Amino acid sequence: MSQKSIKLLIKGILPESILEEIRSLRYIGKRISDHTVYEAVLKNKSGVEIGGPSNLFKTALPIYQKIKNLDGVNFSTSTVWEGKLQAGGDFNYFKNKKGLQFISEGSDLFQIKSSTYDFILSSNCLEHLANPLKAMEEWQRVIKPGGHLLLVLPKKDENFDHRRPVTKFEHLLEDYNNQTTEHDLTHLEEILDMHDLARDTAAGNLEEFKARSLDNFNNRCLHHHVFDIQLIKLMLEHFNFKLIQQNTANSNYISLAMKKPTVEVD
pLDDT, tens digit, for every residue of 7-66? Predict the structure, then answer.
């Protein structure tokens, strides 16, 4: 019997919940260092994820297993990553754990009241937003004082952005002050020139990649900006977050920050 046949047989016999546990075993030795710090902070808390669900939070940084509940935000009812979605429907983030699905821009959480959640999760999402500071302002708004942001961003040297320069904080401020929207294609020329298609085979050839990029408002595949540790720290400080933990692992920068409690002035 072939290995493929064995896998299909196992899948037909074992329930999906057991299969999920088996799959996760391969990540035990690959979990990020200090992963228990992240887990302890978010354990039994309620949050929302922007752009999920994310495989990272099931495996190398197993947050989903620890939290109380989680809602989700995606920009459309149809995305490249999640397929078809329904507003108000189930956000199925881990096994039988489900939350509420919001359909809205990651930078405009108009459906969510201020100080609603204990935490926000975002993995490999912020780079797809044209105005990341506007997004972080919204995320800070919906987190309770003393709540947390777990932000994961890709290391450029490990992906198709490795030829591009890191974005300047001043540029992000300019986008914020100019109220840049998701229709923005400011960085398209740089991306077409420096994007390493050999590391992004799903994008096709240059003509196919350009056509997809010009339709970015509908697919959101572009990485508008490129981040490093220092830029992430500047963004967090700008919105009154206190950095608690930061790791560089699994081709990502992983940052855990706390929204500082508001200080009342007498």
Answer: 444 445 544 444 444 444 444 457 888 899 999 999 999 999 999 999 999 999 999 999
What percentage of residues in the chain have a pLDDT greater than 90? 82
pLDDT of residue 63: 96
pLDDT (tens digit, 9 = 90+) per residue, 115-156? 999 999 999 999 999 999 999 999 999 999 999 999 999 999
HSE on the CB side for 254, CA within 13 Å?
20
pTM summary value: 0.87
Look up tokens 């302002």; give the residue: 137
Tokens representing residue 164 in the block = 């591009």
Q: If you ran DSSP here, which 8-state letter would residue 251 be given?
A: T
Distance CA 63, CA 68 (A): 10
pLDDT score at 31: 86
CA distance 132 to 168: 12
Q: Given strand 252-259, what is the order of strands in its sheet? A: 90-94, 97-103, 69-74, 46-50, 117-123, 143-154, 252-259, 241-249
- For residue 161, list its beta bridge partners: none
Closest by Cα among 212, 209, 171 to 193: 209
CA nearest neighbour of 139 among 167, 118, 170:
118
Burial 168-197 (b: 16+ CB within 10 A, else e): ebeebeebbeeebebebeebbeebeeebee
CA 151, CA 86: separation in Å to the nearest integer? 25
